[in-house]
Write a structure and sequence with these properties.
4 domains; Immunoglobulin-like; Jelly Rolls; about 475 residues; mainly beta; seven-stranded mixed beta sheet; seven-stranded antiparallel beta sheet
Length: about 475
């Protein structure tokens, strides 16, 4: 039945279009980043529109506001958090690709519809919605009545580090604020490790993972406090596991609508790891504080981890800062092109034990064209380790200063050019009719590259060379005599 309702809702949204009178820009959020940017939601003149959702706070006409936003180069997940709403109202979100000059929304983005019940605050994320990179969209926000004069919408990007058991966020006795925003939707993010029943749930939409290690043999008190959920089923569902991510054993679950969950885990042994999976009921977005007693203190407290590409040096610069360190042996910088398979970039010694700010930096002198993902691995003296969040870095492929010499060529020539990264470059020679007469692939390095052109067998005349390096293309010509 739930699936049928979802399909009907989708059909309604796909066919839905507003004949709006106001401007398309509405709230122009630009391209949000990881720092929250808030705007006055109530300052935008509302537009009359209808809601396709049913239930309390929905149905009939209401107020529509448009938020224009753009994705970044990696189309990171976006979080929209709206406060100051009328608590007796519902709120409906949906995304469109086009808003014409007359103010008509079209191009509904499949799966973007979200209906939130009676609430004074509401959170919406683009998780599970396919959005193109470097593209602008329009978020349609419907409310039954006008919000308060202090209503605002805050927008930021978020890269989830905890949407799989293998990336479980470590916790200890210090309460850590967290959420399940932007986690990978659907049970396939966890299959075959867990099932909905392991979390007292009927389905799994956006599961966040946490883990802790027992310091001593004995009991552990796990506390998940200040739980606030909105959207979906406006509730949470939690499962508890022992074992390893490839072979978990479920020993209990809890569900509810908010507040605090306290679980006493008995019979634990020193060094044992417990995993906790927290999911939003029917896709609800939840915030909470999580901690556990009798746990091994986290080896380091990481303040920040940054990575960015320098056009000047053609390197990726990485830096991070720790607030404290306990038995910290060393750091490893790792990178990946798919977010799953990683290679070591650099290893930096840690401070051992420290209770003051420590700053570190490293270089990737051989960055890869396109998008790469960097992470920080911290290793203790006893071999235990933890990972940071993934940081995406985008490098546009560039071929510069291409030249052929000698030109005219009497025998074989030399092609010389520079690239800003290590890549495979395809060199193709065309005659004046556009027919490819030579084509070869060459592994080229960052910096100046020289390739011999096997042109001795070509007949005399004019030729063209095409160079393709990733997304970068360059053409030039030469004469064979």
């Amino acid at each position: 039945m739930k699936r049928i309702l979802q399909i009907l809702s989708l059909i309604i949204f796909i066919s839905f279009s507003d004949s709006l009178i106001a401007q398309c820009t509405g709230i122009n959020a630009g391209t949000p980043n990881s720092t929250s940017s808030c705007t006055d939601f109530d300052a935008v003149t509302p537009i009359s529109g209808s809601s396709p959702c049913a239930g309390p706070g929905h149905g009939g006409s209401g107020s529509v506001r448009i938020i224009r936003f753009c994705t970044n180069s990696t189309a990171e997940c976006l979080v929209f958090s709206t406060s100051g709403l009328n608590a007796s109202d519902g709120i409906v979100y949906s995304i469109y690709s086009t808003c014409t000059g007359s103010g008509s929304l079209s191009g509904y983005v499949s799966g973007s519809a979200s209906c939130d019940g009676n609430t004074s605050t509401s959170t919406y994320t683009t998780s599970g919605v396919t959005l193109a990179a470097n593209t602008c969209y329009y978020l349609r926000v419907w409310t039954k009545n006008a919000p308060s004069s202090s209503a605002s919408t805050c927008i930021y990007t978020q890269t989830p580090p905890q949407d799989a058991c293998s990336g479980a966020v470590p916790i200890d006795a210090t309460p850590s604020p967290s959420d399940n925003y932007c986690t990978t939707p659907g049970p396939t993010a966890n299959t075959p490790t867990i099932t909905p029943g392991n979390l007292c749930a009927g389905s799994l939409e956006n599961t966040a993972w946490y883990s802790f290690t027992l310091q001593n043999t004995g009991d552990v008190v796990l506390t998940i406090a200040n739980i606030i959920c909105s959207g979906g089923g406006a509730g949470f569902q939690i499962g508890y596991f022992t074992g390893s991510c490839g072979s978990l054993s479920n020993f209990g679950c809890t569900s509810g609508s908010g507040g605090t969950v306290t679980v006493t885990i008995t019979g634990g042994t020193a060094g044992q790891t417990i995993y906790v999976a927290i999911d939003g009921n029917a896709g609800a977005n939840c915030t909470f504080d999580i901690s556990a007693t009798n746990t091994v203190p986290l080896p380091i407290e990481l303040l920040d981890f940054n990575a960015f590409y320098s056009e000047e040096t053609k390197n990726v610069l990485l830096d991070w800062t720790t607030i404290s360190e306990i038995n910290n042996d060393y750091f490893t910088i790792e990178k990946s092109i798919d977010g799953e398979n990683f290679e070591v970039v650099s290893i930096i010694d840690g401070a051992g034990n420290s209770s003051e700010l420590k700053s570190y930096n490293a270089l990737d002198k051989n960055p890869i064209s396109g998008t790469s993902y960097y992470r920080l691995k911290q290793t203790d003296f006893d071999g235990k380790y933890e990972y940071s969040d993934l940081i995406p870095v985008r490098i546009e492929e560039v071929i510069s200063n291409p030249t052929i010499y000698p030109n005219p060529i009497t025998n074989n020539g030399v092609l010389e050019f520079s690239t800003n990264s290590t890549e495979v470059t395809v060199v193709t020679v065309y005659d004046v009719s556009g027919r490819a007469v030579l084509s070869n692939q060459h592994f080229t390095n960052k910096g100046i590259n020289k390739i011999q052109l096997e042109t001795s067998e070509l007949t005399n005349g004019m030729y063209f060379i095409g160079l393709k390096n990733g997304n970068s293309k360059t053409n030039l010509k030469f004469i064979k005599e």
